Amino acid sequence: MRERRVGAVLLVVVLALAVSAARLDLDDDDDSDVLDELLAIDEEAERGGLDAGGDYGGGAAEAEAVRRAQSMVLALDNDNARRAVEDHAELLLLGYAPWCERSAQLMPRFAEAAAALRAMGSAVAFAKLDGERYPKAAAAVGVKGFPTVLLFVNGTEHAYHGLHTKDAIVTWVRKKTGAPVIRLQSKDSAEEFLKKDQTFVIGLFKNFEGPEYEQFVKAATTGDEVQFVETSDRSVAKILFPGITSEEQFVGLVKSEPEKFEKFDGEFEEKAILRFVELNKFPLITIFTELNSGKVYSSPIKLQVFTFSEAYDFEDLESMVEEVARAFKTKIMFIYVDTAEENLAKPFLTLYGLESEKKSTKVYQVTAFDTSNGAKYLMEADINAKNLREFCLSLLDGTLPPYHKSEPVPQEKGLVEKVVGRTFDSSVLESPQNVFLEVYTPWCVDCEAISKNVEKLAKHFSGLDNLKFARIDASVNEHPKLKVNNYPMLFIYPAGDKSNPIKVSKKLSVKDMAKLIKEKLQISDVETVAAADNVPPAENVKDEL
């Protein structure tokens, strides 16, 4: 409950900055004062300074700051939401819910973006909408989840799907409202721009004309996330990108990381420039977060190598991974996941069957994923520069064997043989016997009853040398030739044709399953009776069938 109260109050605090010049009659000093007060309140909230009623205990000063904050933003509800969109030529809207953690994470970034846009003289108006409290208004303006950022330009809706950062939001809004490129023509303006510490594309063009320049502007307009800047002054360009030499025209990417400068060497065409930006905009090692997860998944770099460890352990590894990553730049994306962030790491580790490794003595895990086909890989060798480089080379040339989850190889075989990922070939596909296979998961509602039926069948047919019963837990075992998405599943793998298993309906009674087995495997009643007679009396269950 306390987290909800903090989130709700902070919503008012951070969104107070989100207001356009068109709606305010405050001078810069007033804005600065309010910002300072709001930041102070934000810090108080982080320290837990809420009283039992969910209010700030600091008194009248804080209350006044919040009141002033409320007056600086348009709060939408069921009555005014649609009208606000119609009345404003440009309106940026944040749809949120007080309980939503991601809404709370986005709020400060949204506020920073709003303040930055206002400082740039943007005419965009800003609004907030509690979609949980006003569901009719949310539906009317297109808020379908939380958080949602929408920009309305003359009534036309544009949904924001970019990174939840100030710079990304500002860049996107400016591009959608007619300012895709920032022009810098003085050294002072270039130096001031660099203080923003953002990723941007720099273009040097004489007189801002010609077909190459037109393609540059097209790329700037199409690409939503990265800011494009232009200049016709070489001395200004060299401040932004010191590596410029004697080129008449130049395009480069600047990032706020050690691997800072990337020069564009392709044809001056819109698609080529955009692909260059997409392939190079991430750092050598991307730190995986909830905010950038969508961009990681949708990256045009389809081969991705993940390193899992806690942050203090990764510090010892980072420079080595960076050095290897440098050799595979634009071909393989390198990503670090902090295993202390369980909500981020656990889905990946579970995918690889490695969740138990987090609690083991193994400090690092390195995996790979091919987003083009869903194949996954595991580096089982010790992590060092040589092994990591070889792992990446094999991944790149297609010789790295895919990884499939598997439990340890079982030491004993029971009446119903336990099959794991590593033994699926030998126990099922390469076995000279006919195999009746049960595929189950521990969480499956129907699996327990079906397992009992399989055990009855195994006892009934236990005297037959050419038939065995087996089961595999699909939650922790995988095999490329076992594609199952519903549980339980039952299959008969005939000895003479393992490539075409026969699917057995789980709805059949035990007796009907026995009949099906005899029919498909051509087992006579005489063989069955003889087999059953060879079973000790306590195990003979033919009467149950």
UniProtKB/TrEMBL annotation:
* EC nos: 5.3.4.1
Broad EC category: isomerase
Instruction: Quote a single Gene Ontology cellular component term.
Output: endoplasmic reticulum lumen
- Location (main, coarse): endoplasmic reticulum
Q: Answer whether the UniProt record assigns the keyword NAD to this protein.
A: no
**KW Oxidoreductase (keyword) present:** no
What function is annotated for this protein? Acts as a protein-folding catalyst that interacts with nascent polypeptides to catalyze the formation, isomerization, and reduction or oxidation of disulfide bonds. May play a role in storage protein biogenesis.
Protein name according to UniProt:
protein disulfide-isomerase
